[in-house]
Prior knowledge:
Layout: E1 2-4, E2 13-16, E3 19-29, E4 37-44, E5 50-56, E6 60-63, E7 67-76, E8 80-84, E9 90-93, H1 95-98, E10 110-116, E11 119-124, E12 128-136, E13 149-154, E14 159-163, E15 171-175, E16 180-186
Antiparallel strand pairs: 1-6, 2-3, 2-6, 3-4, 4-5, 7-8, 7-10, 8-9, 10-11, 12-13, 12-15, 13-14, 15-16
Amino acid sequence: MQVSTAEFKKGLRIVFDGQPYAIVDFQHVKPGKGGAFVRTKLKHMRQGRVIDNTFRAGEKVQLVEYEEKHMQFLYRDDRYHFMDTGTYEQLSLSADEVGEARDYLKENTEVDVLYIEGSPAAVDLPNFVELAIAQTDPGVRGDTAQGGNKPARLETGAVVQVPLFLNVGDVVKVDTRTGEYLGRVATAS
């Protein structure tokens, strides 16, 4: 199936130069002189690299044909292990195959694994995850929500910027698409 550049949206999976890409960002541009065009940031679905490309307005592109399987992340050793929630079949992927999703994978997290031509190509995380802070500088009395930010390492190893008042053990909500702190869910007991 083909789509026009007018139908572009974030997350749309397209074929570009014979490779599967997901649209990370796009912008329609109508210059005063010349034809309109669409400036895009495309992320390779298998390799994770991001490229910039410009399409002419109205240009048609092919959609990626993929199959999506709902899975649960079980555990990690030297590989990442998932279980199909329908058939209970297990799948083992390397760190490279999991890609950036590994920063937010916690045991029992439900994900969608995308298959292209019968082989796993990408792990699609939920948009938001709740993770505990494993390491950060301690909060000090007087630190406020508007006071600034500090780095915090989460239980999965990801590092995000959080407000100064948060401590080790606090559970925070994080946007997996941007790696941005969204709010505190629970405080450490």
